[in-house]
Give the backbone structure.
Amino acid sequence: MTALAHDLRHRISKNISPIGTSGEFAYSSPQALMVGTPDEAEMSAEFVIVSKVEDREYDVITSMKAYGLYDPEKVKLVSVEMPPEVKDAPKLPPVAEIAKLQGDPKQGEAAVAVCYACHRIGKNGVEFGPELTTFGKQQTTEVLVEAIALPSATISHGFEGSEVKTTDGLTITGMILSNSDPLIIKCMGGLVQTVPKSRVASVTPMTKSLMYEPSQLGLTAQTIADIVAYLKSL
Ligand code: HEC
């Protein structure tokens, strides 16, 4: 294993926490996705697949308590923050220009691995953002390009992000599934965190998308065209 692979594995294993009643595990590691080379991206996608989380109903608090999985006094929470903006990232051409590029679905199939951390596509990936298996068939190239190149231009209904600050200084970004006691928030990678109301300092709706910017995913205009070609081929 390369030093980098080892480091990723370590960072991910540190963040593992139980989310369900049947011993399934999810991890949250926004850093794992900020990596630049295809090798590293592949690593993070691999972990996402391994830790695939089924979508489930979230009225599980009672059974979680019964299994000893939810104890408001002992809940372990982890910070999940949006990655910082990439400084001096090359500006992408306008959506219409990217839409004109000839995409290669084979290249796109490899490049789409960075999306698995947040999207289910066929049998791969985690449901955090919308499922994308049939999205490509239903939408125009322009809509697809815009969704990837400018994630915050339109935010899909029901997938709006929030930032929760806890009394002990953690920042947890994700989608709020329940805003009562406990607050339940689904974070990138599928990690679901259960936050006792007494530990919630503030809840602020995000104005930007929870989806990472192309520069944070290492996407160029051509990779976007390739991914779009792949999604359209499904
Ligand atoms: C960090 C998580 C994350 C990553 C990584 C990510 N997305 Fe998203 N994506 C989201 C979320 C959350 C939404 C819903 C909010 C929005 O519309 O911005 C979304 C929305 C979308 C949509 C719009 C879907 C709809 O139903 O309107 C498309 C298309 C999309 N993403 C494609 C991609 C592709 C392709 C990649 C990989 C290059 C990718 N995303 C990577 C989180 C992510």
Summary: The longest strand covers residues 171-179.
